[in-house]
Write a structure and sequence with these properties.
The structure holds 3 protein chains of 3 kinds.
Chain A lengths: L3 E12 L2 E13 L3 E5 L6 H8 L7 E4 L2 E4 L2 E2 L5 H10 L1 E4 L3 H4 L6 H13 L3 H14 L5 H5 L8 H13 L5 E5 L7 H18 L2 E6 L2 H7 L2 E6 L2 E7 L9 H8 L23
Parallel strand pairs in A: 3-9, 3-10, 7-8, 8-9
Antiparallel strand pairs in A: 1-2, 1-4, 1-5, 5-6, 10-11
Helix pairs in contact in A: 4-5, 5-7, 7-8
Chain B lengths: L1 E12 L6 E12 L3 E5 L6 H8 L7 E6 L2 E2 L6 H6 E4 L13 H11 L5 H11 L16 H13 L5 E5 L7 H18 L2 E6 L2 H7 L2 E6 L2 E7 H5 L6 H17 L1
Parallel strand pairs in B: 3-8, 3-9, 6-7, 7-8
Antiparallel strand pairs in B: 1-2, 1-4, 4-5, 9-10
Chain C lengths: L5 H5 L6 H18 L1 H18 L1 H4 L32 H37 L1 H16 L2 H12 L3 H27 L3 H8 L4 H37 L11 H8 L8 H28 L7
Helix pairs in contact in C: 2-12, 3-5, 3-12, 5-6, 5-8, 5-10, 6-8, 7-8, 8-10, 10-11, 10-12, 11-12
Classes of the chains: A alpha/beta, B alpha/beta, C mainly alpha.
């Protein structure tokens, strides 16, 4: 049985001008593997990731034929049970550490907060666990970072702390929403390597949400390409240039090639039929 | 002779122990109708160089010359007719309470140019926007459309020099391609001189002939496009950046 | 007239500036009317204006004529729908004529205090440095005094009367607006759209008045409507102390203070003008909330 099963997921926002569907019938399943969800802004990729944790605020609504995580029906469990699942069994890493870390709390306090809440771990033990985790995300001086405030850390450092925080409860599934988009390219690859190693070692499932198709395919096993709330193509990551859908091909071709000629870049001609 | 010469530029923010040396001893030359790209990671001071050029950041020492003449301090109205800038974030660079029409006709109004209606409509056509967008507000436009408006605004006064501060980093890849093509077409048509900043070496490589790599406020290496492509870069840092952006092709085949 | 059709107004791609502006105004009205509470506020304020203009038509009695044998009549007594006060004057008629005074005070204060505040706040925030320091210390000095005491001092210097009371209130009411405008300006001045217009060679005055000030306006307007009740009450307070409106002028605050003496036996004398102030303040507050939404084009949707 799969770790996560999603069938016909729909996210609808009721607005003044009528309902707007951000996600329109997305189905996928996930084992302990790395799945990429790729699309441009407005494709519904972030909403898909968030709806798994039921993190859609009203006026948004989540509907699905099936949304099961490890035998638990995520659509029907109580909000209380959902809170236990969030963080403990499914974690989420957001785009920018600047906004997802509490600016007035020391890193250490934020790291151990989850431990104390979920497992009731006591001070010294919780701290040791947090320090171990900081080391696991290749922070060389965990003691200093533990006592630092978020603004004293660089972007790459902050994102490592975020990853550490999300992995401390040892979740079964990690949802990473553009975890490296706010980082510099050289830092990006380091953070990705850390994430990659941890996911492999711990045998977690990973959903990697990003706009960057080449990046995702380098890093994941399978890739879902989304366009206007639908999955237009599911790809084996190794087989990226075997993409058949014109949208996926367009996404790949429109990137400037290093050292290429100076011909105008191929532009995506959006076909209304893709959204059908 | 170069159109833009930046000589030994230093920019510092703050005072005393809080001093931040954002740009240290940077010299750049751009030939008329040329295109020069500044590439570097966040905190490298690349955007600060552009902002110092147009008087938005304080010059601690060094000189900025256009056509061999030092730029006036503060920048005068004649300077604004020669040099214009396109900002990174099209969501933040357009006044949220002004229509496209108001945004585009403002520079004409400031400079007392006649025939504003016709000029606004032509400017929209030049950047590939339908004239029906003319009376819309920024929030009614997509990111790519906003950036087209921002480019049109920068071109309203028909400048020779366009400073581009990460003009596509807030856009989707497919929209980035459209905007880059547009910028290249406009440059060819109008004989513009570009000084462009980006964190993306592939974008700079596509747009610019001369490439300046910056790190922590200093120039690491100035290299032309052919030399970079031919692997003649002498600096380790440049090669790291190159590697980080080359995986794109590796993945795409 | 086919030109002024709904389609013409709502045309997503207007042909001219005029059409675009008309469409904006129309959309603004639609939004204001769709918002029930704002509409209620608008009706209250419009009612106040109509009553003030046509006071003689609404009043049943002379607001200053004293009929001592009819003094302190209960509400709903024959001929006096809201009762009479201690001099036998009809309270309804006094409220009707009093609306003129109230409207006059409100109009004058809202035309002066927020404008002063907006100018000082935006100039201070935009230029920074010593301009900011000097202007903000002056603002602090004004803020440090209780408003009524400061107004008292001004009126004492200027002499009693409605105009001087208004002037005194305006002179004491601007500091909060200056603070709000300055805070907004500080974040606006570092945005790219201000940098862009500076790069186009715009003068500081142009940037301040046509680019910065419109962004500060919504928060100032909301603040003004929230202060409206306070302004009416300060005017009343000055009247009570004999420094604002002078008897027998039917000013609402003055009416409350004179009714205070009979509050336990003849509650209506003070309650009726109190209710009037309450309804009018509420009306301004609701309208202000609605206006804030209308003034923000982002709320209009596509």
């Amino acid at each position: 049985m799969s770790l996560l099963n999603v069938e016909d997921l729909r996210v609808t926002f009721d607005t003044e001008t009528g309902p707007v569907e951000a996600v329109r019938g997305v189905s996928f399943h996930l084992d302990r593997e790395r799945l990429g969800i790729v699309g441009e802004s407005g494709s519904g990729k972030t909403m898909t990731g968030r709806s798994i944790l039921r993190l859609i605020r009203p006026p948004g609504r989540i509907e699905a034929k099936r949304m099961e995580f490890d035998g638990i029906d995520l659509l029907s469990v109580s909000e209380k049970r959902m809170r236990q699942i969030r963080g403990n069994r499914i974690s989420m890493v957001m785009q920018d550490p600047k906004y997802s870390l509490n600016p007035v709390m020391k890193v250490g306090a934020q790291l151990t907060e989850g431990l104390r809440m979920h497992d009731g771990a006591k001070g010294a033990k919780a701290k040791q666990q947090a320090l171990d985790m900081l080391e696991a995300v290749q922070i060389t001086d965990p003691e200093r970072v533990f006592h630092a405030y978020p603004h004293e850390l660089s972007g790459g450092m902050g994102q490592r702390v975020m990853i550490a925080m999300m992995l401390i409860p040892d979740p079964d599934l990690l949802i990473a929403d553009e975890p490296t988009s706010a980082l510099d390219v050289t830092v990006q690859s380091e953070v990705l390597a850390i994430l990659d190693r941890l996911v492999r070692e711990r045998g977690m499932g990973l959903i990697f949400v990003s706009h960057d198709l080449p990046l995702v395919s380098r890093f994941c096993d399978r890739v879902l390409v989304m366009y206007q709330g639908r999955v237009v193509e599911e790809l084996d990551a190794k087989n990226l240039h075997g993409a058949e859908h014109p949208y996926t091909q367009g996404l790949l071709n429109c990137l400037p090639k290093f050292g290429g000629d100076r011909q105008p870049l191929p532009v995506l001609n959006r076909d209304a039929a893709w959204a059908e | 002779m170069s159109l833009i010469s930046i000589e030994n530029l230093f920019v510092t923010f703050g005072e005393g122990s809080q001093t931040v040396r954002a740009v240290q001893d940077v010299s750049i030359d751009v030939a008329a109708k040329g295109s020069c790209g500044l590439v570097g990671e966040s905190g490298s001071g690349k955007s600060t160089v552009l902002r110092a050029m147009c008087g938005l950041a304080p010059v601690a020492s060094g000189r900025i010359l256009i056509d061999g003449v030092p730029v006036p301090e503060p920048r005068d109205i004649a300077f604004t007719r020669r040099v214009q800038m396109v900002f990174q974030d099209p969501y933040g660079s357009l006044h949220p309470k002004r229509t496209v029409d108001a945004t585009l006709s403002e520079p004409l109004r400031i400079h007392g140019v006649k025939g504003r209606d016709a000029k606004v409509i032509r400017a929209l056509e030049d950047v590939g926007l339908d004239p029906r967008f003319r009376f819309r507000y920024p929030h009614q436009l997509s990111g790519g459309q906003r950036q087209r408006v921002a480019i049109a605004r920068a071109l309203m006064l028909e400048p020779e020099i366009l400073l581009l501060d990460e003009p596509t980093s807030a856009l989707d890849a497919s929209v980035q391609a459209e905007v880059l093509n547009l910028l290249n077409r406009l440059r060819a048509q109008r004989g513009l001189t570009f000084l462009m900043v980006s964190h993306d070496l592939a974008v700079i490589d596509f747009m610019c002939d001369d490439i300046v790599v910056m790190k922590q406020g200093q120039v690491v290496e100035a290299i032309d496009r052919e030399a970079l492509a031919g692997g003649r870069s002498t600096q380790q840092y440049t090669r790291e950046l190159l590697e980080a952006s080359s995986y794109v092709e590796a993945a795409a085949g | 007239m086919s030109v002024l059709s709904r389609e013409w107004l709502l045309d997503p791609s207007p042909k001219s500036r005029g059409q675009a502006r008309a469409g904006q105004i129309y959309l603004g009205c639609v939004r204001l009317f769709r918002n029930r509470l704002a509409l209620t506020g608008l009706i209250v304020v419009l009612a106040l204006v109509v009553i003030a203009i046509f006071a003689p038509l609404f009043a049943t009695h002379d607001p200053v004529a004293q009929v001592l044998q009819d003094r302190l009549q209960r509400p709903l007594s024959p001929g006096h729908i809201l009762g009479t006060d201690e001099f036998g004057r009809d309270i309804w008629s006094r409220l009707v004529y009093g609306s003129r005074v109230t409207l006059y005070i409100v109009l004058l204060v809202t035309l002066t205090a927020p404008v002063i505040g907006l100018i000082i706040g935006t100039v201070s925030g935009y230029f920074g440095g010593w301009t900011d320091t000097v202007l903000m210390r002056i603002t602090d000095i004004f803020l440090a005094f209780p408003r009524l005491i400061l107004a008292l001092a001004f009126v004492a210097a200027l002499g009693p009367g409605v105009e001087n009371a208004v002037l005194a209130i305006a002179l004491t009411a601007w500091p909060p607006y200056a603070r709000v405008a300055r805070a907004e300006t500080l974040s606006i001045r570092s945005t790219d759209y201000i940098a862009a217009v500076r790069l186009q060679g715009a003068s500081s005055g142009r940037i301040l008045f046509s680019h910065v000030a419109p962004m500060c306006l919504p928060s100032v307007i909301v603040r003004v409507t929230l202060d409206m009740a306070g302004i009416i009450l300060t005017a009343a307070g000055l009247g009570f102390l004999g420094l604002g409106a002078q008897p027998p002028l039917p000013e609402w605050g003055l009416m409350i203070s004179s009714g205070r003496k009979f509050l336990f036996e003849q509650w209506w004398v003070a309650t009726m003008p109190g209710l009037a102030i309450f309804i009018v303040s509420l009306g301004f507050n609701l309208l202000g909330d609605g206006l804030r939404d209308v003034l923000d084009p982002r709320s209009s949707g596509k």
